[in-house]
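Batch manifest, entry 17 of 40.
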Amino acid sequence: MKNLSSWLVVIFMIAFWAFRVVVTIMTSIGSSFMVQSIDVNVEVVLLFVTLVCVPFIFRRKLIGAIIYLLMYGYYFGQDLFAKVMMMINGETIPLADYTSMFFSLIGVALPLFALFDILLDKGRKANPKDKKTDWFYKNEQYDRQLDERADKNNYRTL
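Output type: structure tokens
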């Protein structure tokens, strides 16, 4: 993770996860917050799946981003689609639904950004880690030992 965009995506993922934890807790105790959870049971499972996916995305693994997109796209995409269809049909929508729609949009856009960030990362495939050869080529301690040994072997030629 050498790019600023990669760091920002992970930071926003963690911030959105923390926000959803607060929303889920407030919904489960019956208090009103900015938005309400769509389904508390599904959201609890979603929060734990997110905890598993964040390290995968941090380590630039594509499977983590795909799982994150599928889970968030399914959960928030249905709510976003329903709210947009209500707007298209001309129904009156309360302000709370606009707020819910905004956070559902973030919930769908954030996994897309994470997936595209991993797919478009040039360093992911250009510099893969190979445990068989990295110990030799990327080991500075071995290079220093080789340099010290080479300095001691100064033979005179006649």
